[in-house]
Amino acid sequence: MTATAQISGAGLDEGTSQGTGAPGTGGPAAQDSKIGEVSQRSLMVRRFKRSKLAVASLVILILMYLGALFAGFLSPSDPAAVNQEFKYAAPSSWTWSGGPAVCRTTQEIDPINISTTYVTNCDDPIQLQFFSRGYEYELFGFIPTDRHLFTVPEGRVLVFGADGNGRDLFSRTIHGAQVSLTIGLLGVIVATVLGSVLGTISGYAGGATDTVIQRVIEVIMSVPTIPLWATMAAVMPQDLSVTQRYFVMTMILSLVAWTGLARQVRGKVMGYASADYVAAARSANASGFRIVTTHLLPNAASHIVAVSMLAIPATILAETALSFLGIGMLDPAISWGVLLQDASRIDVLQQYPWVLIPGVAVVLAITCFQLLGDGVRDAVDPYS
Questions:
Q1: Phi and psi of 348, rounded to 5°?
Q2: What count of other Cβ atoms lies within 10 Å of the Cβ of residue 29?
Q3: Where in this protein does the record put region Disordered (predicted)?
Q4: N or C of the chain: less Cβ packing under 10 Å?
Q5: Helices (H) and strands (E) in the chain, counts
Q6: Average pLDDT over residues 282-310
Q7: In terms of Cα–Cα distance, which of 345, 330, 337 is closest to 164?
């Protein structure tokens, strides 16, 4: 007994003398205490950075949103300016003449086919001017200015060509991102709030409250999405302003998108509600609101973020589809769906394929959001 105690004490003394250092010496014990001190947020960031596609998608989306924010500065032409001399004009031909320049384009009428043709002359190109003056606009919506990234002193530079009214497709595509990208983001934010709140109430309260909420969700989910959106959009007054129609479309898209998230949050909350820490909170007389906001919602937050990220592309596609069908955003509003209305005619698409370029922007944004959503989902998964 004595020998055992002496051996144990010796081992303890030896371990203590080896593992304990003077303050500030950074001994082994001080070093060991730092092992594993990594926050959950840091682990999520590490897991997210492993996905190169998700990181690249995030960079592309940031650039697209910055482009939408500085749309007026990046646009060489007024997106609403109609010019029949450039009706369905092809993208400008580029050349180099002491710097980047565009070839001159003149419109000619073919008397035989009774069609419009454009003749390009690169012998006397127009020099591109950077940070020059152009049409007036309001930067950030309230700073009047006329500075642009690039313009031409005479004529027009058509990076993506022109539409049926001679309007610059490049400028209209950049301005269309202001509506298409933000309406999807705002719609998902509203849907996330609705889905999280109603899903949490349904899972935590149970009983008749849960039954009523679930039956409402089932009714909404049983209706086909596109006809439901179309019906809601069709009953809107036609005399709404662009801003009013924008916010009404946001509400329409969000009132349908919350149901799936609400059901998933309900399942998560029902699982967390039976956990020991929730029982301990109840025994400590914690209110239901405190239990929900302190324990249930924070635990489901990672799942809510992942699902919401994957819901953004669906909302963007919904707005594009409704605007393309003529029951969403309407001219003079500029969105990617409105710009794609010219591509609905096969004869126009065959002769002027550049009218489909706004669709490329839609595909790029949707793909980036999906890849980013997959990366976020894997990052917030505690078992990945």
A1: -70, -40
A2: 13
A3: 1-33
A4: N
A5: 15, 5
A6: 81
A7: 345
Cα–Cα distance, 101 to 96 (Å, whole number):
6
Torsion sign across C-alpha atoms 21, 26, 29, 30: positive
Rounded CA-CA distance 343/327 in Å is 16
Left, alpha or beta for 162 (phi > 0: left; psi -120 to 50: alpha)? beta
Kindly tell me if the per-residue pLDDT of 256 is higher than 90: no
Residue that has been written with the tokens 């200015």 in this structure: 145
d(CA 121, CA 118) in angstroms, rounded, equals 10
Q: Kind of pairing, strands 100-110 and 94-96?
A: antiparallel
Structure tokens belonging to residue 327: 């029951």
Per-residue pLDDT tens digits for 41-57: 788 888 888 889 999 99
What CATH architecture does domain 52-70+171-380 belong to? Orthogonal Bundle (1.10)
Say how far apart CA 323 and CA 247 lie, in whole Å.
14
Tokens 């926050």 label which residue? 39
**Whose CA is closest to 57, among 380, 379, 375?**
375
Determine the Cα–Cα distance for residues 7 and 328; give it in Å rounded to an integer. Answer: 82
Q: Give the pLDDT confidence score for residue 20 in this predicted structure.
A: 44
Comparison of pLDDT for 145 and 279, the residue scoring more: 145
| Domain residue extents for the chain | 52-70+171-380, 92-157
Token representation of residue 114: 């009774």
Instruction: Give the SS3 label for residue 112.
Output: coil
Q: Could you tell me the pTM of the whole model?
A: 0.79
**How confident is the model at residue 24, as a pLDDT?**
47
